[in-house]
Amino acid sequence: MYKDLLYYLIFPGFIFISVAGAFLSWFDRKITAWVQFRKGPPLLQPFYDFFKLLLVKETILPASGSRLTFLMSPVFGLTGACLSGILIMLPALGLKSGFSGDMIVIFYMLTIPSLTYMIGALAAGNPLAAVGASREMKLIISYELTFLLVIAAVILKADLAVTVQDIILAQGEKGPFVGSLSGILLFIAFVFCMQAKLGLVPFDMAEAETEITHGSFIEYSGTAYALIRLTKYMMLFILPAFLCVTLLGGFRTDGIHLLWTVLKMIGVVLLITLIRNTNPRVRIDQAMRFFFIWMNLLVIVAIVLIYFGL
Fold first, then answer.
1. What is the residue extent of each domain of the chain?
2. How far apart are CA 279 and CA 85, in angstroms?
3. Contact in structure between 269 and 28 (CB atoms under 8 Å)
4. What pLDDT, on a 0 to 100 scale, did the predictor assign at position 95?
5. Closest CA to 203 of 261, 155, 269, 138
6. CA–CA distance from 251 to each of 41, 48, 84, 172, 200 (Å)?
């Protein structure tokens, strides 16, 4: 029992994922600053931001809307992110074997933060938040189908294995899936789904500071917004970790392989950061068309290639 609590609360659970996500957030902001010829924040800036929101800033509740739903949405979002991270990291690090069908459970858990952003925005009673929630809902409908097809393709490529551990073992025998033609196509689709899930450019239209002044989160402040920031930190670690587990061969922590594992994570975050800083924001109809047509077509081609062993 105590070992399970250690796993869930400290390593590789809540505290580890939160801290690792905060450092990756600093890395993302630092690379963004360098691209824009700025110095960038200090290493501990994400921690300063979080604790200032948590302990110093006042939580202001909206005058209209449902206050209970407004406050509980960030809690459920954080819970979904934490549980999905634990389900990924335990088998990825060889601490537990997972359970049959955990890939499907992870898919649903990773959807919870985006849904809670939308619900919290609708509960705020702010018209700009409602616009952000509408965009978030349309974006979820678009990319979740692509993300589900990517997971289905990974399962098919792993000889119908539906557990994280079996998918890692399959890559141990065949090599990382990204080393094949179908794996490259799945990697591309996964990266764009990750951009949308994280709300990064070019798919940040639900927040769009210059258009709807932070959209979905316009009414959030203090502790409630601190939980949203923490959820975003965690998702910035969880999604690249899931990509590494499903397509890049998983994690190894023995000897020099630990360095390679860290470099894989940093490389994925660097890639999505560069995409964020070299592309403009697209309209919601363009994003929907991009996922519904092009990304779904890309994954379907990958599935056909898998059937031919490519």
1. 2-307
2. 28
3. yes
4. 85
5. 138
6. 29, 30, 17, 11, 25
